[in-house]
Amino acid sequence: MNELLVFIAVGALAQLVDGALGMAFGVTSSGLLLALGMPPVAASASVHYAETFTCGASGLSHLWAGNVRRGLFLALVIPGVLGALLGVLVAIHIPPTWMRALLAPYLLGMGAFLLLRSARPAGLRTDVPRGTGPTGLVAGFLDAIGGGGWSAITVTTLLARGLPPRAVIGSVHLAKCVVSIAASASFLLTVGLSHASAVLGLIIGGAVAAPFGALFVRWVPARVATALAGAAVLVLGLNNTVRLLG
Fold it and tell me: Other C-beta atoms within 10 Å of 134: how many?
């Protein structure tokens, strides 16, 4: 029971960050699970199992609200699924020590990326920017290996290219739902479900914290929330680096 409560707390904290930024549930929760000593592959698998439910609800909500652009969704989801499947294959065949060596700079880089992310004016672009497919491929690959990063990579890249936030966030979240299902199925067939309490805890914690995340983003300035998330991920990356060197 105590272990389940810890995982519920992890899911709640990650959801608060995600609610404030519209991203970073995966990278925050996987970083926390790594800090608790969970093996890298198990951490990524657990996060993707949980995200199948959390992102599914979010993606379908965006679809019903009319926030999804079909062309942008397709440009992201097909390469994203391919990248996720390749990422799972790499993750399950790399020794845990090597995975930690890869994840340490990844977490540090994601933390710095969030810290340096600046607010941009809303774009009005209606076409699908060139390079969207490769962006989805890279995001899906890194997301499967690191347990998160899909939204951080895709959302910021597409916003920087002049697309309106509503279309970007809606299309990215619906694509993430499909990518998570593909990654989860692949993880389930290869490594199984070895940390059911972690998955359940992430789902419960995320669901409980979702309304508070909405309030958090309403009252906290976007730049402050981004800086807090970046600092948190940087700390997790430093912790992983210390564990690796120790």
Answer: 11
Residue type, 108: L
Q: Is the pLDDT of residue 77 over 90?
A: yes
pLDDT, tens digit (0-9, with 9 covering 90-100), for 94-128: 876 776 677 678 777 777 776 776 555 545 556 77
Q: What distance in Å separates the CA atoms of residue 177 and residue 92, rounded to the nearest whole number?
A: 22
pLDDT over 90 at 14, yes or no: no
- Number of CB atoms found within 10 A of residue 92's CB: 16
Encoded tokens for 182: 């593909």
Write the pLDDT tens digit of every residue in 136-151. Answer: 998 899 888 877 778 7
Rounded distance between C-alpha atoms, residue 30 and residue 107, angstroms: 10
Residue with tokens 């390079």: 131
Q: What's the chain's length in residues?
A: 246
Q: Give the integer Cα–Cα distance in Å for 69 and 163.
A: 11
Question: Angle at CA 220, nearest 5°, toward 214 and 221?
Answer: 120
The span from the CA of 153 to the CA of 207, in Å, is: 24
C-alpha 160: how far from chain center: 19
For the chain, the domain total comes to 1
203: containing domain:
2-245
C-alpha distance from residue 196 to each of 7, 13, 58, 63, 200 (Å): 10, 19, 22, 29, 6
Q: What is the mean pLDDT of residues 80-89?
A: 94
d(CA 138, CA 36): 27
* Terminal alpha carbon distance of the chain: 30
pLDDT, residue 83, reads 95
